[in-house]
Design brief:
Blueprint: E1 53-59, E2 65-71, E3 78-80, E4 89-93, E5 100-104, E6 108-112, E7 120-124, E8 128-133, E9 139-145, E10 154-161, E11 167-174, E12 177-184, E13 190-198, E14 204-213, E15 220-221, E16 230-234, E17 241-244, E18 264-266, E19 274-275, E20 284-290, E21 296-303, E22 306-313, E23 318-323, E24 326-330
Antiparallel strand pairs: 1-2, 1-24, 2-3, 4-5, 5-6, 6-7, 8-9, 9-10, 10-11, 12-13, 13-14, 14-15, 16-17, 17-18, 18-19, 20-21, 21-22, 22-23
Length: 334
Amino acid sequence: MSSPSRVLVFGCALALMVGLSGCSAGVSAPTTATAVAASGESSAAGTAPVKALLVYQWTGPSGKDSVTLAASDGSAPRAMLPEGVTQGFHPDWSHDGSKVVFADQATGLWVMAPDGSGATRVHDCVNCDYPAWSPDGASILFTQYADGGGPPRASSLTVLDLKSGILRTVVEESSPRLADVPRWSPDGKQIVYGIDRFDASGAETGSAIAIVAASGGQPRVLTDYKDYAYYPDWSPDGATIVFDVETVQFASKKPDWADTWDLWTIAPGGSHAHRLTRVGRGVHLWQPSWAPVGTAIYATLDSPSGRQGVRVALDGAIGPGLTGATHVRLQPTG
């Protein structure tokens, strides 16, 4: 999680399974291609597969986070920081894959084409993050923090109407709880998100995932706070939610499993909780994101050998990935 309350240091290499130097924002870097996404994973059944792109967050040699795009096999990565942007966080695709939205916590929410052209600030805000484009393309959902403290004293899940610029608050929480990392349901009618819970010192005492109507109302908590569920994403068919347990790293009293972060799935009704992966001790698998057609999940893998953005099969098998990549999302192509 890289809200103002916690800033994680991301890997500085941009290559596939090898270390490369000389990578910089806006400059294509040489790379060795490794299969990251499977063919046809971004296209609906019955349509011709299109070579999709991966978008992810990457920290360059300067220490700045940038939005990076690469081919689905990881080749031809290009890190981009448009003019006027200080850093690029947590990118997300539009529903048709034609645009990318990302957050700059100093200047606001930005939208650009996959080649970096047409960069436009669509909302001027400070301490806003985790943008999520609505399924109909008309709105962007994001987290607005009340301040840049650690943790912030309050947060809200806010919807920006792109045509009118009107803002609408869906959920608001204040200390000792915070709402964060929201994602839309496939039909756009509901929102799943994470809730942090803190003690008086600001240490995490638990986290959970919850669902609320996109129009607002009473949230429904799906998991127990002691499970440290977080960073949810909804499957394209609406039947399953994937989540991680990353917030356990900030726990005031860590459980015995705190050094192993796996991915879990659960039904939107709160039943059928399932441990999807079984990584080794000292391995952290987090930031899950469904492929557009639901055939796999993309995630960040931290291990003693470094950080990678990886593809996770639905049987829990973890494939090779992009060194230094985090918050990986595959482009929808139809």
